[in-house]
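Progress against Task 2.4 (sequence-to-structure conversion) is shown through the following example record, which the project officer requested during the mid-term review.
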Amino acid sequence: METTLYPLKFMPLFKNKVWGGNKIKELGFDYDPLPNCGEMWVLSAVKDNESIIDNGFLADNTLNEVLEIYMDELIGEKNYRHFGNEFPLLIKIIDANDKLSIQVHPNDDLAHQRGLENGKTEMWYIIEAEHGSEIVDGFQSTVTPDEYQLSLDTGHIEELLHIDYPQNGDVFFIPAGRVHALGKGLLLAEIQQSSDTTYRIYDYNRPDADGKLRQLHTAEALDAIDFSPTADGRTHYQYKPNATVTLAECPYFTTNLIALDKPMRKNFAQLDSFIIYLCTEGIAAVKTLNTICPIHAGECVLVPAVAETVELYSEGPAKLLEVYVDPAQWKEEGVNHSNDFDLMAQFIGNGNPDDYLDDLSLH
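Structure tokens generated for the chain above:
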């Protein structure tokens, strides 16, 4: 199938946050005149925060504009029937130089009841964790709504929370409804549904840059919270170089880790989805549709759904997050597509295109 589409790169969007730091600048990004940067939106279709294309003849167009033109060629036939002109994902790099507020996100049903487009399920991939860094990941034990409300009213909410101590390379899947927060000293990639809805529960009585307390959403959050405990919030996976290792798989996104130090070729002919490659370490290149896109840590490439094969290269060791929306993970008009999806991932041994080895890590 002939197409004018090609792998797309984007201009980053920088967000100044009261808790932000300067680690994103160390990745090679210039966000002056902001004093610091808590979030870099790498890929976004959120209203008033649309990513702008930075390469090729589509440069200076937004992701939303290109989706309206290319539709299923960009995101896949089933995905386009499911999502229409709403790109389904939001990708961020977050630098938490201080604690983020304790918060929760609604699920799709509650979001729709409240006139919002989407709920928010997300995941974190920890790029760098300082010694002693913490995250909040749900409750220590089962909590009743009354117990939760009392602890909030009396300033003891932190005593109920489950704390994890993340390390470099750790993964945390945060379903909608789970109370959570990032602690100080974390640089991470966040993969999430395309939604900017957050219910802030507690913010440590911390003033913002103007000396005012930030708005809380305690009433809105109550119906969104899952009060069940979190025993172990980490996603346990086996690290494998030059292989595709699944980190998260749900109806909203699939995220894989590829630790690359030699060329890899992948076949996505049956996937029916766009693929996002987000570099988290080193320097890499994505080749597809007769175009090569180099990327360094913090940059991403959006591979259109019409690309059947992708070749990945690196300059020394590099790490990539591979993200897509797998139609097999959701039902369309009551039809389960789980048997439609047969993804074959292959890599090139020693850089020789004729020397293929099956990568079975997705099965």
